[in-house]
Description:
This protein is of the alpha/beta class. The protein has 2 domains: 17-62, no CATH class; 74-150, CATH 3.100.10.10. 19% of the residues lie in helices and 12% in strands. The protein has 4 helices and 5 strands. The protein has helices at residues 56-59, 78-86, 98-104, 135-143, and strands at 74-77, 114-117, 127-130, 132-133, 147-150. It has a 3-stranded parallel β-sheet with strand order 1-2-4. A two-stranded parallel ribbon has the order 3-5. The radius of gyration is 31 Å and the shape is elongated.
Amino acid sequence: MKLNEIADNPGSSKSRMRIGRGIGSGKGKTGGRGVKGQKARTGVAIKGFEGGQMPLHRRLPKRGFTPPFSKDYNEVNLGRIQAAIEAGKLAADRPVTIEALVAAGVCSKPRDGVKILGMGELSARLTFEVAAASKTAIAAIERAGGSVQVIGAQG
């Protein structure tokens, strides 16, 4: 077999239908669009339109509020960090930062920093440089002989 001899199986792909080329083609006159009305024309924009009735998205009440300056933290439990140390992905002698956690695969992307949560056990003595930490996490880290430095959120 040679590269110039490679071909698709016969009948595996159809050639496209040329519409609007006379009644003899079978797709002439209306060109497969039916007849008349807005949908038969180009540039149709009626996604939420309900025939003049008040659309659903305007009938439903608006609720809630999204704070514009809220921070999106990576939330990481202590048990997950301990598992990464035991697997050899995190070094126990270096400070635990968001960059170190992303490099270890604990977090997928930096976002606005990392918040340490207290679920799980921590036996390693670590230094944390993070954007936030819960009270239970700080207590567990200090119980293990480590320290937590809460730095301003990056980003």
